[in-house]
Specification:
Elements: H1 15-26, H2 37-40, H3 42-53, E1 58-62, E2 71-77, E3 80-86, E4 92-96, E5 111-113, E6 117-118, E7 125-126, E8 132-134, E9 153-157, E10 160-164, H4 173-184, E11 192-202, H5 206-213, H6 244-263, E12 271-273, E13 281-286, E14 317-322, E15 326-330, E16 335-344, E17 347-357, H7 368-393, H8 409-428
Antiparallel strand pairs: 1-10, 2-3, 2-5, 3-4, 6-7, 7-8, 9-10, 11-17, 12-13, 13-14, 14-15, 15-16, 16-17
Helix pairs in contact: 1-8, 3-8, 5-7, 5-8
Pfam family, one: Ring_hydroxyl_A
Family: Belongs to the bacterial ring-hydroxylating dioxygenase alpha subunit family.
Keywords: 2Fe-2S, Iron, Iron-sulfur, Metal-binding, Oxidoreductase
Length: 430
């Protein structure tokens, strides 16, 4: 479904601020972390909203959050609030959450259900396709068809919902979707239900949240729950005589697993395009350690009713990362998705959603505690690490440090993508 929206200026910045940003982007040192203003400056935060979050595809929700006609969610990106609804034909639609009368916000709750969209101020009423169907006292010459809700671009990629606030969104999303559908479709996320959703607030810049996600250099010693199910050499490591045998064994396990999964119709090969396209993404299916079934405390499935029509519990973990704000893990028994939403230069919201088969019964097939244990612990640990980083970059002693070429290559890919997209957008807006 393709819809359009008029561009809206979020925050007028001075030419001086743009000049500062351009200078910082130009002198970014490859292979090193960003300079402190990228994490601390409110001007750069506003530029992030304008050039990144308003001009690219942003992951915001999973389709099981809106299972029935009239179900809605709202998503705030800076000053913009977006209303996503499922209409009577089961199509997902997105609109600016703003009444066309005098600008009142239409829905203030994050999630709910409605028959029509009714403005709480003067009761202007819109149907689930965004058409104005009722407006009292506006006179005989008033044209309702000129006052429908402003639409927002939306794409449903096998149950993953992306929106774009730009007037002309990046066209390469269609190619990304075509390449990812064979990976995602077998898990049938749209036939799942939400078993749990948790939001945490990190006192740190959104880029630190994403950089932390893009590496597992920090995992040993910080994530004891997560690393139970992960192979040590899957994190990346500097090769040498001391670990050559372990790396070779892991690589053989990956090859054998890929061959088995590919024969089952489950694409598994790595696609690495985080910094080579506008809609950057990465995917790969990797084996899990020990019981090898799921990202749980005992590495066994968290839900006895498997997704789709799977009969094999050991399907590894399919990871799907998108720039600028998401990562996802698809397993045989559940899917866990993460959406990062910037709130200010030093505050970020991370929303985690766990989905299981729609017919799975809580307390019989799964428990929420077991399903969420690994990532609830990991998210809290990552929150602390991001907050340590935010405090550190604010110090006068901070200087951009070097990334490990063996374990932090994907952090570099994120920074390359971010810097490139900011440069292109900043140049185009002059």
């Amino acid at each position: 479904m393709t819809t359009t929206t008029a561009p809206v200026t979020l925050h007028p910045r001075t030419g001086r601020a743009d000049a500062m940003l351009a200078t910082l982007l130009e002198r970014r040192r490859p292979g090193h972390s960003l300079e402190a203003p990228f994490y601390l400056s409110e001007d750069i935060f506003q530029a992030d909203l304008e050039h990144i979050f308003r001009r690219h595809w942003i992951f915001v929700a999973v389709a099981p959050q809106l299972p029935e006609p009239g179900d809605f969610i709202t998503v705030d990106i800076g000053a913009d609030s977006v209303l996503i609804v499922r209409d009577d034909d089961m199509q997902l639609r997105a609109f600016h959450n703003v009444c066309r009368h005098r600008g009142s916000r239409l829905c203030d709750e994050h999630q709910g259900s409605l028959g029509n969209i009714v403005c709480p101020y003067h009761q202007w009423t819109y149907d689930l396709e965004g058409k104005l169907i009722h407006a009292d006292h506006m006179g005989e010459t008033f044209l309702r068809e000129q006052h429908h809700l402003h639409k927002v671009h939306l794409r449903d990629l096998e149950g993953l919902i992306f929106i774009c606030l730009a007037d002309e969104p990046p066209a390469d999303f269609e190619e990304v979707a075509a390449r990812m559908r064979p990976y995602l479709a077998p898990h049938k996320l749209s036939e799942c239900k939400v078993a749990a959703q948790v939001e945490i607030l990190e006192q740190g810049n959104w880029k630190l949240t994403m950089e932390n996600n893009r590496e597992c250099y920090h995992c040993v010693g910080n994530h004891p729950e997560l690393t139970i199910s992960l192979y040590e050499h899957g994190f990346g490591a500097q090769p040498g005589p001391q670990n050559a045998e372990g790396i070779a064994q892991f690589e053989q396990i990956v090859r054998d697993s890929h061959a088995r999964w590919e024969a089952m119709g489950l694409p598994s090969a790595r696609i690495e395009e985080l910094d080579t396209r506008v809609t950057g993404f990465r995917t790969q299916r990797l084996p899990l350690d020990r019981a090898g079934e799921s990202q749980t405390m005992n590495t066994e499935v968290a839900c006895r009713k498997l997704l789709a029509d799977f009969t094999d519990k050991s399907l590894g973990g399919l990871s799907f990362w998108t720039q600028p704000n998401s990562w996802h893990h698809f397993m045989s028994d559940h899917v866990v998705s993460f959406s990062v939403i910037p709130l200010s230069a030093g505050r970020t919201m991370v929303r985690t959603t766990w989905c299981v088969h729609k017919d799975a019964v809580e307390g019989v097939d799964y428990t929420v505690e077991n399903l969420t244990a690994v990532w609830n612990a990991t998210n809290d640990q990552d929150r602390r690490l991001v907050e340590f980083s935010q405090a550190g970059v604010a110090s006068s002693a901070y200087q951009p440090g070097p990334y490990s070429p063996f374990t932090e290559g994907l952090v570099e890919a994120f920074c390359v993508w971010y810097v490139d997209r900011m440069r292109v957008s900043l140049t185009a807006s002059r």
